[in-house]
C-alpha cells in the first residue's frame, strides 16, 4: 500500500504518499517511529482548507467582539440569578426541614394549648 516514502538528510521518514484509499489525504508527516504526526486533509472539491487571516485579522488567539462579551456576560449572570432565586426559594420553603424541625412537632408547641410550653401534661382546659 505504501507507494513512496520521503527521507531527510538523517534518514528520518518525513512524509509518505498512500494508495487509492488515502487520496482524500493531502499528505502525512510521520515521526522517526513511523507514527503519523500531521494529516492534512483535502475537501471533496480538491481545494485545501485555508483560513483567511487577512480578512478576519486572525492571529491565532480567540477574540470576541464587544457584542459577544456583552451577550456572554448577560447570559452568565442571568443563569446565576436564576439558580440563585431557585436556591433561595427552596431555602425559604424548606426552612424547617433544613433546621431539623420535625413536621409533627407543631402539635406539641401550639400557642396557648399548654400552661407550660411543650409540656403535654399541662394541657389547658377549654373555657
TrEMBL record:
It comes from the Eukaryota. Keywords: Membrane, Transmembrane, Transmembrane helix. The chain crosses the membrane at residues 68-87. GO terms for biological process: photosynthetic electron transport chain. One of its GO terms (cellular component) is photosystem. It holds the Pfam family PSII. The keyword Transmembrane helix applies. GO terms for molecular function: chlorophyll binding. This is Photosystem II CP47 chlorophyll apoprotein.
